[in-house]
Amino acid sequence: MKNSTSLTSLSSMDKDLSLNFLSQYGRASPAQRSSVSNPPSARMVNNNKIQEDANSQLQDNPDGLPHLSGKKRQKRRDLITVNLSGTRYEVVRQVVEKFGFTITKDDDPTSYLIWNDTFVSPDKISELKPYQHINHFPGMVEVTRKDSLARNMIKMSKVMPEEFNFVPRTWILPTDYSVLQNFAKEMKIKRKSKTFIVKPSNGAQGHGISLYKNAEKIPALEHTVVQEYIDKPLLLDGYKFDLRIYVLITSCDPLRIFLFNDGLVRLATEKYLPPHESNINHLFMHLTNYSVNKQSEFYDKNVAHDIGSKRSIRYFNEYLRRSDIDGSLLWRNISDMIVRTLLLAQPHVLHAYRMCRPGVPSGSDSVCFEILGFDIMIDRKLRPWLLEINRSPSFGTDENLDLEIKSALLDDTFRLLNIKVSDKRRNIAAQKAQAQKRLFRTSRKVDMQDFTELDKKKINNEKRKEELTELLTRLRKIAAKEDFERRHSGQFRKIFPSDDPVKQERYCNIMTQTFSLFLTGRGASMQKEIQVNYNNKFKEEDILDMLAECEADEKELRLYPLGKPPRGPKPLQSMPESAIHHPENEELDDSDASLTTTPRNRPRSSSQIQLQGQKTRGSNGINTCPTSGMIPNITGNCVVQRPLSHSALASGGSQHRSRSLTRASSTNKLAALQRSNVDDNFLNSIAKERENEMIMKTLISLNEMRIKFPGKSDVEAELMLDQLTENWKFHKPRIASYWLVKLDSIKRRKVIDIVKSNVRAVLQRVWRTTDIDNLRLYRIFSRVFNRLLWSHGQGLWNCFSSSQQTWESIFSKSTENIAAEELNCCRRIVQLCKDCLLIVYKFADEAKNQNLNPNIESQDLAVQQKENKQTNASVGYTAVHDLKANMSWSPYTPYSQRYNKLYQHSNFSTS
């Protein structure tokens, strides 16, 4: 009889026991517990061996701790555990062991991965931690149960009949029994013979399926689904067959769908004949379910992927090629059908998932994933038909083909899930951060009426910055996830979201309709979320520009609370602010001087005149070079280097440098460093000079560019642009209405793309490379193009104002230094975009006038031109086709010297 191990007996031990030892007491071995709980002072030990082992244990472990080393405990804690207590399939266990995961012995609810063959309750999904994964989504029953799929398809086919016509005509009994009988009577009147297949609403594996030629014999009181039988299927070696296609859903918020490139082709075991009263009960002929046909004596067990009653989709693709059938078109239709089906389920799944996971932001790592088995049949016209969807497809491996396909499916699935040990620590930290954010969030409602206009602008600006920051974070996370999926997809192929923008736009429209139908009242709110998650047209560079614009607006609100900044251009922080006269510079060469001239001497804004300060002329007439960030070379020209920082400019630039640097430059140590780095500096200077030379050539090519007007010469186009500039007050409201109101975002981008495509061609020709996107100069141009399209085209329209150039703020706010030549290239691009807008406007205006008067005779046209000329004279300007140019002129001739008589002042006298 063993003594009681009470606290009194423990306190009487010779060995002092700490609380740590008491906590480890229950995990010690029986021999250790016996040696500790029965010390020599308490009783005599009968077994000397046990006593010797206990003494040696205490000598080796003086703290009294059991022999469980910290390394083993740490290693056990860092293992990825998998709970497979809910599955009966051995192939799942084999693939898990292949990945090195640890299979728990019991039903461990804290495992990283939980696999179940049956339905999972929403409560279990709600209890999952962020680092866990389970192989089922809540709400998926809306498409995996036969009656639910039929009901949702019927509803959606009434809204979008052309999109949801890939399921045979279906009736749900007993509700639609009278509708079914009426349809059968109509078919009899039209003398059309129809066959009906009856399936249990919640059946599986082919149980309870029967065929009927006469709809009156179908029982009305059972919960069944009746479908129109596909009596003209595509045959394979004379047998009817269907396809078991595997689809993986890795996330529902946002939705991500992958199609497995392999699967099963399941054949019937009797040669197919059209349904007749004589063979209507031959299920081995009409049904393709494996669980039904394996009972047939004619079932041919698979020994290779191309023979037997069960074959692979790889063999099916080879059969299509041998039969001269367009397999790529067929698979595009199948993948499109799968996406539309899951878009139908998305409102139900997303709603159920968010109910199970409240407070989890959209875009977080999903705790659910699912492998679905789509059963698809193809008719003789190669049209795919959806039969049913299996929520828990069988992973049985009765044949080698099953083991090959299903093990590869599970292997690629676990690889895409990307389960890591660090997920637990990372997700728990993210959860704490979200909880802290909710804790410090103010719940008090703010009355905007108590705020001034300045406060409202600040609040709106902060709100927009938060939205843009969240969108930027989401885009970067999606980009990282897509990059991982591309590298680890294996045999999976992503089918949603689609890489085709036209198809993705169509999918977004379908999803919007499904949310409006099944989640009444939330369609409008979900529309914005759908556009952000699935059809976002903003890129990372666009969002960064918009964030820079928000910061600029915020600074302007601090500097000018009244919203009225002083007139005049803002100084660019990346440009030199001072110029020092160098007497050794005699005169700039002709090539550099030609760059300061513009192809047309149209009036420039004050900001344009100020910003063309790369070369200035001193008071004594000698050309000088700005020294902030520049040094003169041997020939006297300016070589642009990195501009100084703001602090250096504020302190006076190079004139106010520290004297310690001058003294240090004269020491031997610095001289040795300069000699050691002379080669690197020489190479860097060569590369810099080469880059500057290419930028100068680019600027020359950009200055030579002209925007073509269809049907007119360059001279006529120049005349037209000058006329619009001279009469700007008249044309300004019309051009503003055309650009900002009439044109949508797509057409505005097309106008800018006219210049963008030509600029790309110029860069390819000058830089002699096809990889234009990696050029630093083109990245700068891209930022300018994006800014011109900013705020629905307001960015380009602001360039027509002489008070400010808002596009230049993207450089003044950026930490990246922009050289003077690069900035001049950007100015030329902005001018080309302005010219392009004016020419597009004029072309649309002339086309409109021609459409309004298409049948005017030549005499009437001359009269109308004369009247227009008189009318234009009355308002103080002359139309471009009435201007008479001098004989000696060029595109560089000032506008006031081109014409003999420009304005008509006869109607301006006051009475």
Describe the 3D structure.
- The protein is α+β, with helices and mostly antiparallel strands and 911 residues long.
Task: Write the SSE topology.
Elements: H1 7-11, H2 19-25, H3 30-37, H4 48-60, H5 70-77, E1 81-86, H6 90-98, E2 102-103, E3 113-116, H7 122-126, E4 133-134, H8 141-144, H9 146-159, E5 170-173, H10 177-189, E6 196-200, E7 210-212, E8 224-228, E9 235-236, E10 239-252, E11 255-267, H11 283-286, H12 290-293, E12 310-312, H13 313-322, H14 327-356, E13 370-378, E14 384-390, H15 400-417, H16 422-439, H17 453-488, E15 492-496, H18 501-518, H19 523-534, H20 540-559, H21 590-594, H22 606-611, E16 616-617, E17 623-624, E18 630-632, E19 638-640, H23 646-650, H24 659-665, H25 668-676, H26 678-704, H27 714-726, H28 728-742, H29 745-767, H30 776-788, H31 790-798, H32 809-812, H33 820-852, H34 858-875
Helix pairs in contact: 3-4, 6-15, 14-18, 17-20, 18-19, 26-29, 26-33, 27-33, 29-30, 29-33, 30-33
Tell me the fraction of residues in β-strands, as a range: 5-15%
What's the β-strand tally?
Answer: 19
Seen as an oligomer or otherwise, the chain set is single chain
The main sheet comes to: 7 strands, antiparallel
Q: How many helix segments? A: 34
Low-confidence stretches: 1-75, 568-673, 869-911
Principal-axes shape call: globular
- What is the helix content? 40-55%
Q: Which structural class do you get from the secondary structure elements?
A: alpha+beta
* Distance between the ends: 132 Å
Radius of gyration: 39 Å
